[in-house]
Amino acid sequence: MAETTSASVSSPTAGDSNWRENKLWKGTFAVAGIMLTLVTYGVLQEKIMRVPYGVNKDYFKYSLFLVFCNRITTSAVSAGALLASKKALDPVAPIYKYCLVSVSNILTTSCQYEALKYVSFPVQTLAKCAKMIPVMVWGTAIMQNRYRETDYLLALVVTLGCSVFILYPAGTDISPYGRGRENTVWGVLLMLGYLGCDGFTSTFQDKMFKGYNMEIHNQIFYTTLSSCILSLTGLIIQGHLLPAVEFVYIHKDCFFDIALLSTKYKNIPSSSI
After folding, report:
1. Residue 174 pLDDT greater than 60, yes or no
2. Alpha-carbon distance 240 to 176, whole Å?
3. What stretches pass through the bilayer (predicted)?
């Protein structure tokens, strides 16, 4: 009787140990996958925007076309995920809220790509550490969150550290669009636009998740679908659609880079971009 009791007590302990070990390995695998995807995504971004293609050393200049390709791929995949899981494609929230997230997301990604013309990807990655301040500001304005004074102080210190690194060493960074302090200023301004819009995007997405019983693929589908329409409209108005298509037609390696970038983009959670 005592042996039976002892076995019944030790069995759950062994089960808990296996469960924790499996959870640890799954977590490690997920983190490694996200990191690998983000690194590949970053390298491809910098290659497309800063490395010339072909014997004539042509640079790809149509950042909105990258946004369009990324979003149309993600929209198709999210729609497939909803259909495969037999979940409704109907919008859960009002359409204008999806569009609001879409506009800020387009501005975020456009500023991110354009900034790569003037600052390197490592500098841009470090600058993202300053995202804390816009997230806190938007969190206070939209979500009515309250933060302690020490939180604002720590965010300010991190932002100042990033600013020093960007403004001084980046001044000698070689850019395909020129060199010097002026390019650094443009890069910083674009990064500020990126951080501000990205802070709004993530905060408003969080509010939508909390305000509606929303499947993540539902929000991704309608947000990226809106982005497809808006970015395509922007390309047509600017007259960049045909030149962008012609560029990737001439430079097949650029086409494959954009295709791979779009594939990597759909694997990254929207809150990470």
Report:
1. no
2. 20
3. 24-44, 152-171, 183-200, 220-241
